[in-house]
Structures are given as C-alpha cells and as structure tokens.
Amino acid sequence: MTLATLLSAQVSPATGSFHYASLLVLLPLLGAAVLLLGGRRTNTWGHLLGVAAVLGSFVVAASLFFAMVSRPSESRSIVETLYSGISVGGFSIPIAFRIDPLTICFLLLITGVGSLIHIYSVGYMEHDPNRRRFFGYLNLFIAAMLVLVLADNYALLYVGWEGVGLASYLLIGFYQERPSAATAAKKAFIVNRVGDLGLFIAIMVMFVTFGTVSFDGVFAGVSHTSSTTLNAIGLLLLLGACGKSAQVPLQSWLLDAMEGPTPVSALIHAATMVTAGVYLVARSGAIFSAASIALTAVAIVGTVTLIFGAVIGSAMDDIKKALAGSTMSQIGYMILGVGLGTKGYALGISHLLSHGFFKAGLFLGAGAVMHAMSDRLDMRRFGGLRKFMPITSTTFLLAYLAIIGIPPFSGFFTKDPIIDAAYNSGGYGWIYGVVGQVTAGLTAFYMTRIVAMTFFGPKRWEEDAHPHEAPKSMTIPQIILAVGSVGLGGLLMVGNRLPHFLAPIVGEAEAPNYLSVNTFVTLGLVLIGAGYGWYVYARNEVPLLAPAGGPLTVAARKSLYGDALNEAVFMRPGQYLTRLLVFTDNRIVDGAVNGTAALVGGLSTRARKWQNGFARSYALSMLGGAVVIAAALILVRR
Amino acid sequence: MSLVALATPIVAPTIEYARIAPVLIVLGAALLGVLIEAFVSRPLRRGAQLFVTFIALAVAFWAVVRLHGTSTLAVQGAVAIDGPTLFLQGSVLLLSLVAALLMAEREVDPAGDAFAARASALPGSNEEREFTAMGWTQTEVWPLFLFSVGGMLLFPAANDLLTMFVALEVLSLPLYLLAGMARRRRLLSQEAALKYFVLGAFSSAFFLFGAALLYGFAGTVQFGGIASALSSRAGQTGLVLGGTGLIAVGLLFKVGAAPFHQWTPDVYQGSPTPITAFMAAGTKVAAFGALLRVFYVALGGIRWDWRPMMWTIAILTMVVGVVMALTQQDIKRMLAYSSVAHAGFLLTGVIAVSQRGLGGSMFYLLTYGFTVIGAFAVVSLVRDSAGEATHLSQWAGLGKRSPLLAGIFTVFLLAMAGIPLTSGFAGKFAIFASAVASGDGPLVVVAVLASAAAAFFYIRVIVLMFFSEPAQDGPVVVVPSAFTTIALAVCVAVTVVLGVMPQPVLNLVDQASVFVR
Lengths: 638, 517
Prior knowledge:
The complex is a heterodimer.
Chain A: H1 3-9, E1 12-13, H2 21-37, H3 46-69, E2 78-83, E3 95-99, H4 101-124, H5 131-150, H6 154-172, H7 179-210, H8 215-221, H9 227-244, H10 253-256, H11 262-271, H12 276-283, H13 285-289, H14 292-315, H15 319-338, H16 345-372, H17 390-404, H18 410-423, H19 429-455, H20 472-493, H21 497-506, H22 517-539, H23 551-557, H24 562-607, H25 615-637
Helix pairs in contact in A: 1-8, 2-3, 2-5, 3-4, 3-5, 4-5, 4-11, 4-16, 4-20, 5-6, 6-7, 7-9, 9-12, 9-14, 11-16, 12-15, 12-16, 14-15, 14-19, 14-23, 15-16, 15-18, 15-19, 16-17, 16-18, 16-20, 16-21, 17-19, 17-20, 18-19, 18-20, 19-22
Chain B: H1 3-6, H2 21-39, H3 42-66, E1 72-74, E2 79-81, H4 83-103, H5 126-134, H6 141-154, H7 161-179, H8 186-218, H9 223-232, H10 237-255, H11 263-270, H12 273-298, H13 303-326, H14 331-352, H15 355-379, E3 382-384, E4 387-388, H16 398-401, H17 403-417, H18 423-437, H19 441-467, E5 476-477, H20 482-500, H21 503-512
Antiparallel strand pairs in B: 1-2, 3-4, 3-5
Helix pairs in contact in B: 2-3, 2-6, 3-4, 4-6, 4-12, 4-15, 4-20, 6-7, 6-12, 7-8, 7-12, 8-9, 8-10, 8-11, 10-12, 11-12, 11-14, 12-14, 12-15, 13-14, 13-19, 14-15, 14-18, 14-19, 15-17, 15-18, 15-20, 15-21, 17-19, 17-20, 18-19, 18-20
C-alpha cells in the first residue's frame, strides 16, 4: 500500500470530545479580540486573560490527546467540518479541522510551550506599558498557528500560514519605537512573502491538477499524476517551507527577527512558527514520497542550512543571534530528516518536538540573563553569572546538554536517528550524514561557547549591571522546559513510541539504532567540539571586543552574506519590476480606467437632463416605453 | 322558458378564511386603527396605534408560519396560497415590522416623529406652526401603513388579474398619502406624493387595459385559465401580446424598472425616510412577487415572446440605475437609483423562468429588503438643524465623528455592492447562477459589469465617510431611541448572517419556490 492510499483511507467524522476542537482556536482568538479591541480598559487584567486563553486551549488539546490514544490506531484521523462556505462550480473550501496523530503533537507543543511562554511573559513584560497589546498579539499567534496545524485543506492551512506571518511581523516590530525593530519586522514580512508566494502557487497548481485542495483529495490524486507536476508542487512547497522555516536561501530574516521581545523569539522564532515548514513537508509526505527530485532538494536544503546556521551561530557575539543561528541549524536537521522521505518524516517531527522544548528553554534562559543584565545582549560583557543566577544557569545547562546531544538528554535521542537515517538512505546519503556529524561537533562548540561566555569565567560586566535571579513566573516555566529537555527525547523515542504513533499519517520509520558506529563517531565529535569550545572560551580570556578573525569568521558575522543574496536576487529586480508596473499602471491602466469613468460620468450628466422633475415628461417616457414594448412584442411575433 | 332555470339559487362563494388569515388580520387591524382615530382620545392614540400595529404584524407573521407547507388555491381561485406567497408574505411582514420601528421613532427629530404634525396645514403657515408647537402627531399614518401592508400581502398572492389590480391599488393608495406627510421639506414631500399618485394612476390604467386584452383573449382573468388558453389556442396574438406588454408596464412601474422608473428618485427623496424605507423594501418584494406569478404562471407558455422584451428592460434598468447613480449628490436619490439597478438585477431572475430563478429572486428580495431599510435608517440619523442632511458633501468625514454609524452604513453599502460575506453577495450569486443555468449568460455578464460599476458609487460614499476631513459645521449623528436601534441591529444582523450562513434560508426558498397552478 502506498502512502497516498494509506492516507486517504481512514477518516472518521468528529464525535465526543472532538466536537470541541474548534475551542482550541476560539479561545485564543477571543482572547486576542478582547485584548486588542478592548483598549486600555483591559490593561489591568489583560495579561491574565491571555494566559487563561492559552491554558484553556492546552486543556482542550490534552483532552483530545487522551481521547485519541483511547481509539484504535487506524481510526485516529478525525475531521470536523465547521462551515461549508459557498461552493463555486465544484470548488469549495470548507472550514474543516483535521485532528490526527501528527496534528495532536503540534497541538500539544503549541499550547503547552505556548502556555509556559505566556506565563513567563507575565514576568518578563511586567514593566512594559504595552503588555496588554503584547499578549493580544501572542494570543493571535497561537490561534493562527493552531489553524495552520488543524487545517484539513491547503487553503485553510494558508490562512493559518499568513496569520502566523502577521503575528510574527507584529511581534518582531513590537518595540516599534526602535527603527531596527521596525526594519526587522518589515524584512521578515517581505522575505516570507517570497516563500508564501511559493506555497500559494503550489496550492493553485494543486487545484488545477487535482480539482481540490483538501488533503485527502490531493493525496488520493497523487498516484495518477505525472512526476513532473508532483516535483513542481514539491519544489514550490519547499520554497514556502524555506521562507517560514528560515532555510537557505531565505534564511536572513531570522537573525533580525531577534529584535522582538525574547519570549517571542522563544515561542515563534524557535519552538513553533519556524517549524511550520517541517510540518508542511511532513504533512505533504504523500506528494514528496512520489516526487524524488523535490525530496532530494528538501534534503539538500536541510543539509546546507544545518551547517550554515552552525557557522553563523559560532561567530555571533549577541546571545540571541547565536541562538538564532542554532535554531536555523537545528531546523536544518529537521528538514534533512523529512527530506529522507518515509524513513525520516517521523524523525524530523520528533526532533522538532524535543527542539521545541530545549530551544525554548535556551531562549527563556537568555531572556532571564538579559533581564538581569539591563537588556544587554553582548556575551563578551557577560561571564560568571552562574553564581548569581543558579536556577537559570542550571536549566540553561540542561538544555545545553540536550541540544548538543549528550545521552540521555533529549537531543541525543532525536538528532542521532536523523544522522543515522541519512547514512542509511543510500546513494549520496552519506554526504548528509558526514555534514550532520561534523555539524554536531560544531553545535557542541558554539553552544559551549555561549555557556562559557555567559555563565563561567570572570565577570566582564559593564558598571551598571546588577545581576539577580528572575522572578518565579519566569523561572518556573524554565524549570518545566528543562524537565522536558531532559526527558522528552527518551520518552518519545525509546521503544520507537512517537514514530509508531505517527505511522498512520507519515508512514512507518525504521527503529533507530543507538549503538551504531555512527553514534559513537558523533559523540566523539561532540566531545571534541565541546572541549575546544571550553578551552578557547573558558580557559582563555575572552577579549571585550571581537578580534578581527579570519575570512570565514568575518563572513559568518555577516551571516554568510544572506542579505547580499536577497538584495541581488529579490530586491533589485523587484525594484525594477515595481518601476515598470508603476509606469504601466499610470499610463495604460489608469488611462483606460479614467477614460471609461469619464465616459460614463459624461453619459450620466447628460442622462440627468431627462430627469427634469416634470411628471408630464415622466408620463411621456412611460408612454413611449409602453408603446415600444407592445409594438416590439407584436412585431417580433410576426 | 321555464322559471325554474332562472330560479337557480346563487351559490355564495366559499372563502377559506384560515388561508387568507394574514391578509385579514392586517386589514382588520387597519380598520381597528381607523376606529381608534375616531374614538380614542388624542393622548392615547399613538400608544393604541403602535400596539395594534405591532401585534397585528406579529400575529399575521405567526399565521403565515402556521400556513407553512400549504399549496392550494383559495377563495374560488382568486388567491393562491403556496410557497412563494407565504415566503413573500413572511418577508413583507418582517420588513414591515422593521419599517414600523423606524416610523415609531420620535427621538431623532426634536419636533417629534418623521411625519407632519398636521398634513392638511399649509406648509409654512401659522396653522402648521401651531400644531407643531402643540406636539400633535398624525397618527393616521398607522392605519394607512397597515392598509398598504395588507395590499402588499395580497399582491403576490393574487391569482387573477382583478384581484391583483385590487391589491395593487390597496397597496398604492395609502403609500401616495404617506409619501406626502414628511415633517421637514413638506413641499418636496407633497410634490413627491402628487407625482407618485399621477404616475401611479397612469400605470394602473396600463395594467387594467392589459388585463382587459388578456380577458378578451382567454375569456377568464384567472392565471390558470389564461395559461391553458395559451396552450390550447394559437392565433389572436395581438390580444395576448398587447395584453402582456401592458400588464408588464403596470408591474414594471411598481418595481421601478426603466423606462418606468423616473418617479423613484423624486418620491424616495421627498417621502418621509421611514416611508421611503418601507416603500423600497416592501413594494419591491410585493411587486416582484406579483410580476413573477403573472409571468411564470399565466404567461409562462409564451415566454419566448416576452423574454426578449424583458432582456431589454433588464439591461436598460441596470444601466440606467447604475449610470444615473454615479453622479447623484443626494444620498436618498443615490439609494433610489441604486434600487432601480437592483430591480434590473432582480429581473434576471424573472427572465430565468425556472424554479431556481424564482428561489433566487425571493432570496434576493429578502436580503435586499433588510439592507435597504437599514440604509435608510442610517440616513434618518444624520441630521442638521433643517432635518436630515442628505447632501453627500455633508457626509464627509462621518467615519471620524461616528465610527459606529459609518461602519454600519458601510456594511449596508458593501451588501448592496454585493461584496462577499454580506447578504448582497449571496443574493446576487443565487440569482445570477439561476440566470446562467437558464442560458442567459450574456445577460449575467452585463449584470456583473453593472454591479462592478455600481460598486464605484457605493464605495465612493465609504471613502467619503472615512477618508475625508469632516466639514466644520457638518451634521450631527443623532442618538436614536430603542426603536431605530433595534431596527438597525436587526438589519445589520440579517445582512451579515445571510452573508455568512445563507444556506438555511436558501434551503427554505428552495422548498418554497413552486407556484400552485
């Protein structure tokens, strides 16, 4: 049985608690509406409402999860149609939610990590006058992200896709008084536009090809569609995924996106939204499995990005940008995972879930450090914070062990299988594996660099810094995320639990082997990387100003010229195109439109003379009309 | 010759009172209203009239609902009680209820309601000032209103030409009077009433002459009889076609189709705004109901003869309505021409001659009725010292002063323009789809182009309200009492709900769109 037929087989209508699925979206949407429309009246309690809305969604998601596991594994795909819309000549876009094992993972991740970050933000944004607006945007984001993963068709998915893009734009530019934040928001929006266009065209091609955009309909049509078309759709979907997930060549916006408040970086630009591309590829697995060129392109993009991000992460002195580079790199692993096809879809998703926890933990830790160091970000002016921030440094260290992949922490269980699967994928798959392993070492290096420069070594603070531990509302979410960083990977992967759970949706992945030679090679590289990082940044003195560095360092600090590429490929041609369009619009389109308008307007002015106000003229025109009608009727018959 | 034959007893006609209960209730209430005018003391009259009116309309609506599913002729074939009749009667009653709320409003004009203190006093005379100062109100408007509603209920139900003519007059005569009763700009109002009356009488003559010709041909005035005469007898085409054309003139006048539309802007502008709203919604529903019944039931057999004529009228109506609306400077006149254009869109449903065409037209009538009443309700709230500020320039910047009201008006304008997620879109979609299904593609192309051009003048008002600077001594937006507030809320709700979830009502019209023959 091919994946496509497997997928289109078993969908049941919603029953029982699945009827409440729409609450998942409605609660945060309502929260956003109240907070954003309610104005200053809601200032005093707005943040609590925001937290409550997301917690409510989490409770719904959890109850759906338990309802789902109590069902047999072949009937876990539930579709709930909320609204049928108007169908136009066989084309209809119902607003339908689909809850299946893949979706439920995301529901739990989004609402779970989302709730923790909402709680954290209560403390983090305490002194911000616009805290209510912030929570409004966060709720809006949660609602849009849930629509994205709940959608039962590509059109609705696109609604969520654009919704998270909007929320991301609003939140990156949240400190709108800073020009850098405003620019970063615009940049994120515009770069995403390129990717969104890819997704949009993909959806249109799907409609033309399959006559529908619903998941079931599209996947059912895959088996009798030419591979050229499928490859085209796959590559367009990949373009969409690259934009949203900051993959090469559309990666440049993510570093600037760190202008947003840190909880936003943790939630949107690390744990959830940026992983939407991975979701898109995994969800469209039926298409990619039948489109070998597109699938290979996915794996290559992932591989290039994972080393790209790691190199950038190694050179940044700004703690959030270093972590952003790391996010790019880790998503590269996930994209590589899903780029391996049926073998890897589940592995990509499981790394996504564990990454959601440890990376959110790292960002929240970074936020706590910023909080302590009067909003400074330069790691060269940190150092020795371990004693002053015991909880933050402990949770950060646990997440650190998870990301570099030390057993038995999360990352080990989820990253290693991807490298392993890459080696086993045949053909040139070993190249992905080698790059993955080398990057694992590099990951250990840059993460050690961050930890060493921030928490260890001598104090290199500026004079006004008075570090202190963060309040409870901030530390408790960090602790919970740290627990996840420690245990989630094992929980998901031991006994192949998650891949098995996801199998009805994305196909059965092979059970990973944690005792292979590759694992030990990877671990060796990790230890070397970590040791070197420790040697350079903890044993030796860290200069307060960044040294000149070699050409690679310089390039990495400029985020490997991603901006230059964007400007050359998109910005300049775009500007020329705009000028051309403006010219056409002014001269040709406006000419035609204004001409028609003038014509009709003139006609109207003339015709008004008939409407002279005299009843006798009106009666005359009625009589004329009547004569003409009667005469015409009779004459036509003859 | 035997006397026995002459002595054949006259059989009294059977009248199924229960089936025509909605009409009887409303007309009975109107008579009661006349008695109230005669016997109840002046201070109590208004309350009594309001009570009778609202109760009568509500009970009549209940009676319509009770008749749900009936499909039969009544009163010896003079009246047809079937799906279209009941749906349109229900629509008329609901629209009348909303219009009655506007008529009952007394807060927006400091001097009282929308009607002249005493219609018989000369405009500008001392007598007029005295009555105004005494705070008199012309409570006769209520029975007149109910008579007109009664006519509107009978009009789409009439199954023979004479009953239809009677209904036409019962509907129209009170409206002529009501049109002349505006409190402000009374000369304009009286002129409107007189014009409406003269031209209305003129059109009635056409209708009656057409009815005579058809009777001459078929030997009966009943629609079923005319239809069977048409199918069994060819020849005598002059009588049939002449009759068809003249009946069409009479009915097209009522719906405001070009070239019989010229009364519309003058009357809409001059009438008291609540009456304009009632007229624009109720008359259109009732007259299109009658038009559909005549042309579907009686004249459906010769559709190939009259469809080209209707095509021409429909296109002319859409074009005239849209083109004339473009240059209007008065909001009421603009809405009047827009209603002409809508009559053109509705004619595409008549031309379809199909169950879908009938259903689409009925749905469109309902949606348009609520939208247009709401729009005129908004017009009645934007005022300066001289009364309603209807010149478009006075509406500049209204969105800055009163975002809520401007937002509500925007909803209505978007619905009239047929923007998706408003009832106007669903209505246009239903009616145009039926015309396409009947093979009238080119007509629908014209209709869609006309809608696109029409969007210009609707959106121009939106732009004016939201993106222009308000004038220094511009009009104020009056805070109305609960009457207008409820009416506006209902209209907005219907406009939005039927735009977002039209399916239940579309299913209802689908079930109801079969004429009994």
